[in-house]
Amino acid sequence: MKRAALAAKIDHTALGPTTTADDVTRVVSEATEAGMNVCIPPCYLDSVASDAPDALTVATVIGFPHGHADPEIKREAGSVAWKAGADELDVVCNVGRLKAGEADAVADELGAVVASVPIPVKVIIEAGLLTDDEKHRACEVAVDADADMLKTSTGFADGEPGGATVAAVELMADYLPVKASGGIGDYETAMTMIEAGAERIGASGGLAILDGAPS
Fold first, then answer.
1. CATH homologous superfamily, domain 3-211
2. Model pTM?
């Protein structure tokens, strides 16, 4: 895949626990120059949205990284993020409730977030923490919530094996468009995920991925 086409599929990311305003400024500048999107913490949305070019898609995260926020707080956080300038939301589902069999509660929570904003919502299912049956259930929940996309992982879950995998992407792509995220640091890995069915790549090393792409 040519560099420009691949760039449009990458959410260039700064979401670590020590992320500063300078880090966000850097990834926004890099993404703008290369034609990527960005995914940044919600606390920096105001400063980015006021200066970002119209062509830049700005995503942020809700309930990150473990998905345990109260459902009403998630809904309100999504609304606040949209009003602050977010173009997309990446929402962490409550994996504990999903694994406990409370799929209806998870669907209601996610559906409330989706209904509160007029922008695309991706549901992060933390695929590395789920059995295949639980992955299917998580995908069904996201569909029931009217989400726009599924995302494999946050990259920050304790014990999560390897972030995005081909198997997870292939399974999830049967339900909704997929954003593969977690452990993708080079062109070859990104293309492997795209060939498996991913339509978006989430990575802190967006420039490193593009360095391997043909011009």
1. Aldolase class I (3.20.20.70)
2. 0.95
